[in-house]
Amino acid sequence: MTILFVMTLNKILASIALILALLAAFIGIPTREDRHLKEIALLIETEGDHVTPLELAEQIYAGRSIRLIDLRDSLSHVRQHIVNSEMMSVQQLLNHGIKRNEMVVLYSEGGIHASQAWILLKMQRYDSVYTLLGGFQGWKEEILYPTLNAGATAAETQGVERRKMLSLFFGGEPSLTSQESSKRKSARQNNSPPKQKPPV
Amino acid sequence: MNAPLYQFGLFGNDTALLLAVPIGIGFGFFLEQAGFGSSVKLAQQFYLRDLTVFKVMFTAIVTAMLGLFWLSWIGFVDLSLVRVLPTYLVPQFAGGLVFGVGFVMGGYCPGTCCVAAVTGKMDGWINLTGMFAGIFLFGELFPFLEAWYSSTPMGEITLSQVFNLSQGTTVLLIVLAAIAGFYGAEKLEARFRSVGS
Question: Which residue among B72, B80, B175 places its CB closest to the CB of A17?
């Protein structure tokens, strides 16, 4: 009886395998390329293609392993860059052995170059790649030199201390009170030369 | 797409190494459950009296193959990210021969000798020692073997590429070969068991 059951089970399993194999032969190729393109389109639509400067700063501060790639030219990179970022051209990026299991954040000056590079990497199925929203300009405005307008709303003043701390952590100069903001503004109006920042 | 989990960044190198431990233990457990901790049972296959190794291994191949195909079809696994070992025809042919001769002589393959060793079998420990001695020797001689080791490269090829067939057709052919093989194995076992007894 047991032998009969085992034989029957074997035959059932073999039959299932055969049916699945016949269907597989009918399907031919299991992966359709257009699904990948749809996924990329979906990521763009749902804003899953980027991280905001604040999100990035929080993640770096929390010690998460992130590979930061600066796609700007060498002069801009030497002048100022996000801590631990490495400079690369788009061509180098494609041949530079980025691991598929590491989180990569690309940034350029405004974000266009980084978005173009993001598409190229996504087409090659690198899934943990993001761009920095607003590029390095956005990083400077939100993290390095954040300002708070005199007429800031309650929502805008929320988390000011945290942002100050993050800014200082990345070597920035936050002016997150209306007093500091107005001082900074007047300094800018007086055309005082901007203070040279150390690479951050 | 969600898998391969490592490639999609669900965990890093450290977790991957840690996960290798339960996977290895699980693999060893099922080898032991299939009776592969005994060199006598394993050696029986070379006399065509017990082809369990062939049946278990071919079942594993068919299960994994069908699983990968269908999981890819439903969009869970990205087959393009599944690592394919590159083929180096001549050195791998020689390696296969060394493996086979070692298996016949020792009664164990590398995995089953570990299973035998941890279940307390002396012949398993002797095989394991021999295997590590071989690994050490190969490592030491590698500078002299390197050119040959990398000769006749064919890249990361698969059967469907070699025979210019779709993956689905290749799956069907392998499943048919497996079913025919299982049927033939049963017949051979019935015949040679009676001869041996």
Answer: B175
- Bridging pattern class, strands B153-155 and B87-88: antiparallel
Q: Answer whether residue A4 shows pLDDT above 60.
A: no
Name the DSSP class of A197. P
Whether residue A21 and residue B72 make contact (CB cut-off 8 A), yes or no, is no
Cα atoms found within 13 Å of the Cα of residue A77, Cβ hemisphere only: 15
| Nearest Cβ partner for B70 among A20, A36, A103 | A20
Domain that holds residue B16: 1-80+171-197
Residues B142 and B196 in one domain: no
Q: Please report whether residue B165 resides in a domain.
A: no
Contacts of A23 in chain B (CB under 8 A): 168
Beta-sheet pairing, A66-70 with A86-87: parallel
The answer to whether the Cβ–Cβ distance between A102 and B9 falls below 8 Å is yes
Q: Domain for residue B125, yes or no?
A: yes
Contacts of A17 in chain B (CB under 8 A): 62, 66, 175, 178-179
Q: What integer pLDDT is reported at residue A196 of this predicted model? A: 41
pLDDT (tens digit per residue) in A116-132: 999 998 888 787 899 99
Q: Which of the two residues, A151 and A89, has the higher pLDDT score? A: A89
